[in-house]
Amino acid sequence: MSDRQCATDRGRLPSMIELWTWPTPNGQKIHIALEEMGLPYRVIPVDIRKGDQFSSEFLSITPNHRIPAIIDPDGPDGQALTLWESGAILIYLAEKTGCLLPADPVGRLKAIQWLMFQMGGVGPMFGQWNHFSAYAPETIPYAVQRYQNEVLRLHRVLETRLKEADYLAGTEYSIADIATFPWITAITAKLSVLDDYPAVRRWHDRIASRDAVQRGMSVLQDRRQTTPITDAERDVLFGSGQTTSPVT
């Protein structure tokens, strides 16, 4: 499958999708999917350290004040569609283009199964480890170790699967791989684990070599902040700032 095949096979140029996002693993899932599917999109940055996610404009799109979100002017039946939650967006885009989700019922369910594994396990547990190891105002050894153990357990689950299949859904690269890849990339930048999981490493390196993946991972990379988080930013991301009135 070429990077552009999905969209061009639809017979007409798709409408420009609005993508509200930031370069976190959840945002990167959608960046990659849109690049793989060849769908045109316009990036609207949502700087989560500055509190853009609480703006009235963004909250009119998603009440959950979490990126990513999309507005597709060419949704079902030609009607505009607003959608949030990265897993739901991935399923929608796969169904819209007819690719990256196996056509056969068993393959489709396997892909959705592993997508749910990422949404319910990999993302939340990796995120908790990252929070307690990098963002918590004080070190809590129990919390760090608790979530590190879960990170390793989830890697073991992935290793078991990827020893028997090239991709999470089986023989086909799918939205399940796209959902999981940015989280593995993010965790390996901080915790050296892949030497112990060679099948996961092979899978990760295979996906990382794809042109569309590289383009997707580069979206907004120049906007990433590498400076230590401030107390004000911590409050916006994790504290009482999350319950304040929307920014106007």
Automatic annotation (TrEMBL):
Domain GST C-terminal residues, every copy: 104-229
Keywords carried by this UniProt record: Transferase
One of the Pfam families matching this protein, by short name: GST_C
A single GO molecular function term of this UniProt record: glutathione transferase activity
EC number: 2.5.1.18
Keyword field contains Zinc: no
Domain annotation GST N-terminal: ranges: 14-101
Family annotation (CDD domains): GST_N_Ure2p_like
Source superkingdom: Bacteria
PANTHER family for the chain: DISULFIDE-BOND OXIDOREDUCTASE YFCG, GLUTATHIONE S-TRANSFERASE-RELATED
Family from the record: Belongs to the GST superfamily.
Protein name: Glutathione S-transferase
